[in-house]
Amino acid sequence: MNRKMSLLLGSLASILLTAHPMRAEDLNPAKMPINHFVILYMENRSFDGLYGNFPGANGLANAGLTAKQRDKNGEPYETLPPVLDTNQKPPAIDSRFTPNLPNSPFNIDQYASAEMKTGDMVHKFYQEQSQIDGGKMDKFVAYTDAGGLVMGYYDTSKLKLYQLAKQFTLADNFFHGAFGGSFLNHIELITGTAPVWANAPQDLVAQLKTDGSLEKDGQLTPDGYAVNTMQPTYSPFRAGTPTEKRLPPQTMPTIGERLSERGLAWAWYAGGWNDALAGKPDPLFQYHHQPFAYFKQYGDNTPGRAEHLKDEKDFIAAIENNTLPSVAFVKPIGEDNQHPGYANITQGDAWAAKLIDKIQHSLAWKDTAIIVTYDENGGMWDHVAPPVVDRWGPGSRVATLVISPYAKKGFVDHTFMESTSILKLIENRYDLQPLGERDKNAPNMLSSFDFTQPPTNKNLCKISGKLYVRCS
């Protein structure tokens, strides 16, 4: 073949490759150009509750019959029960809300704006399964303690995360990993399974009827899995919790050990961590939001704790010093996490947007993937039935944003994903062994990425190849 023909064939090949670039789903995940994963782990909001009117998403317009709630006997409510303020003891009717709201989703903003707090809602292991009602999604009101509040949603179109969702990727078929609350979902996020306590005190164990329905609630299943909020053996834990009521140290593998085995840097960063360790906890520091603190390998005075469990201030320093680890989990303190009851939506939105902007203006942005997700739905209704995967979940649908130079732009990802998909993505990228069947079989989130895009940075200039410097 002569030189002229070789050049022609080479040019044709180049044109074909440009016209049909390798898709994210065709790429070997271990070769993806991502060197930093940042997971911002927010609190207790359903997808429909925040993004039900997002353009192109499977939202409130598709709710159909699931929007009509039924009582425990299966009869439809004529109107929603009164909205209750569970911050009052005992709970009282929240006078800001109109009584006798129609039995359908309603806009909370007309009664309490996103800057205001509302009551909390029950969000526990057995109760959420009852609310889901075999996929009918019609008993959220029947199994709540907050009345009609569970059917509320917000207009979030002016919030900063909403704008980022429009700019990058919003996943609208993403489910929180385990039924129930924050405790189990945090541990599921780092292990893909539930913690165990054999021979736990019987007063902590739930009792079930012969048909499997709940007779008496508890922190553990009858066969010894901890599913509702418990305090850890190790510090920090809620003051006054007796030793015999605290979950024994867990020893199952976590994503942390998998990363360490590969020599990869990682950390769990928590707002208020240092103060809690010093015995001066913020009133809204949540002990059960610190999953690694339940594990023997990260117990008091261990090298693992010193190296990997850090304060949010350390995360900010890592961005500024260009020492961002391969994997960073970032947990906001209570004031910033958007949890109903003790936090509002606007403050948490500002917290997340500020950190994201800081990363976007850092040297790390060019090869970073930020995942903003919610630990669970907080007892709030969503219209999409979760698929059946295993006995732990997944639970209801939550909003998840993928923000990266390589995230698809202006994209709504309808691919099924759940919380352990984050584990799967990390495991794929760094060639890690799965922790169990759940993360092994989870979808890996590659559908949210397009690795044919050139990396960009708001304050970096590309000079040649992969070399970047700060712009003047």
Quick overview of this protein structure:
The chain has helices at residues 3-19, 47-51, 125-132, 160-167, 182-191, 255-261, 273-277, 303-308, 312-320, 345-360, 420-430, 437-441; strands spanning 36-42, 84-85, 92-93, 106-107, 152-153, 169-171, 174-175, 207-208, 214-216, 266-270, 309-311, 327-331, 368-374, 400-403, 411-413, 417-418, 460-464, 467-470.
How does this model look, in words?
The chain has helices at 3-19, 47-51, 125-132, 160-167, 182-191, 255-261, 273-277, 303-308, 312-320, 345-360, 420-430, 437-441; strands at residues 36-42, 84-85, 92-93, 106-107, 152-153, 169-171, 174-175, 207-208, 214-216, 266-270, 309-311, 327-331, 368-374, 400-403, 411-413, 417-418, 460-464, 467-470. By secondary structure, it is α/β, with parallel strands linked by helices. It has an 8-stranded mixed beta sheet with strand order 11-10-12-1-13-14-6-15, sandwiched between helices. A two-stranded antiparallel ribbon has the order 2-3. The chain has a two-stranded parallel sheet with strand order 4-5. Helix 3 links the parallel strand 4 and strand 5 (152-153). The protein is globular and about 60 Å long. The N and C termini lie far apart (49 Å). The model is unreliable at 1-26 and 459-472 (pLDDT under 50).
